[in-house]
Amino acid sequence: MIPFISVKTPSCLTLMDSFLEIEQMGIHSNYGPKNTLFEDRLQGLYFGGQGSCLTVCNATIGLMIAMKMAGRRRTCSVSQRYALMPAFTFAAAAHAAIWAGYTPLFCDIDPATWAACPVSERRMIEKYGDSIDLIVPYATFGNSIDLAHYAALHEETGAGIVVDAAASLGALDENGIGFGSGFAHPIVFSMHATKTFGIGEGGVIYSGNPDHIAVLRVMGNFGFGEPRTATIPGLNSKMTEFSAAIALACLTTMEDVATRRSALADCYFRTLPIDFEMQKPRGHRRSYQFMPVLLPEGCCRNAVREQLSSQGIGTGAYFSPHLMEQPYFSGLCEADDLTVTENVSRRVMSLPLWTDMTMEMVGTVCQALENVLVPASMSRVAA
């Protein structure tokens, strides 16, 4: 059996001392000492000591408060406020935008990187103008994106920027440092159990501007800018001390885990049949949650997945359906031409890639794919 996802979080036995410290101290939440220590260590080890970090109970809540803070400031009400984002992303981004008061605008994606297409972004900006209050790029599948492009869009349009980097904690940019280091706008990372940096449930917001994190910290504590007094919009986004203790333990193995997963990905690149298209890598190292590939045109994805499943190999299909194909969003949101998104979403398949997976397992998956490729190609039925 080769499952699609195999979660590996620190052993409870290795965490007992930390948990006992929390119990004895009696501080379980409210940005306690474990939480503060994790934020400081992450900032120093991963972000090179630049900017500030804020933990959150999960990345969706992190997106919500970051979007609420970062959006364009208005002196009068308008009928519609938009958040521009790719349609090829997880539902959390669109849900967070709606909860924060924006209507998602979906742009198309680049056919090589599967991140937001700059040409499609430009069309939407020209069409909707300054009614776009927020731009939410997605670092697709832990791959780095061009943050300088979004800094320039902010200067040009005045729209706020929030980067959805759900799977990217552990990725290194083209300079070999933590993805997002020094970037002035909020970047939201997930620490869900299925991610490279997985603690169970949690997230972290990073910004190269400490003032942004200071505001978000107040927002995440009910907007209490004064003792027990709400001065700005708020909710409860705080992460528990127990989760922070797990995050501290994960920090000690972060580099080894990311390196191991990167080596497994390299094995896939070397071994997969040439018929499969791969996402173009960007940056020094990606953070792999799984291995995404595009099936050859004409393959029936359902048939391929069923045949792999019959051999004990688990797979996924992120992100299919894409957001504009999902009933709730299609009835509420607006979109550009999504030709590339539709093609990628129809053909994408996610292959197993997890920390304790072996190179032999990768070879087994690749061989199985090669064996089913020809019969699967005979079917012209779309998945």
- Spans of 5+ residues with little confidence (pLDDT < 50)? 376-383
Number of strands: 14
Q: Roughly how much helix do the residues carry, as a percent range?
A: 25-40%
Structural class: alpha/beta
Largest sheet: 5 strands, parallel
Strand content: 5-15%
Order of helices and strands: HHEHEHEHEHEEEEHEEHEEHHEHEH
Q: Tell me the distance between the termini.
A: 24 Å
The shape is globular
Strand ordering within the main sheet: 5-4-2-3-13
Helical region count? 12
Radius of gyration: 21 Å
The average pLDDT value, as a whole number, equals 95
Characterization of the model:
The protein is an alpha/beta fold and 383 residues long. The protein is 40% helix and 13% strand. It is built from 12 helices and 14 strands. The strands form 4 sheets. A 5-stranded parallel beta sheet has the order 5-4-2-3-13. A hairpin with a 2-residue loop joins β9 and β10 (229-230). α3 (59-70) crosses α4 (91-99). The two termini are 24 Å apart. Residues 376-383 have low confidence and may be disordered.
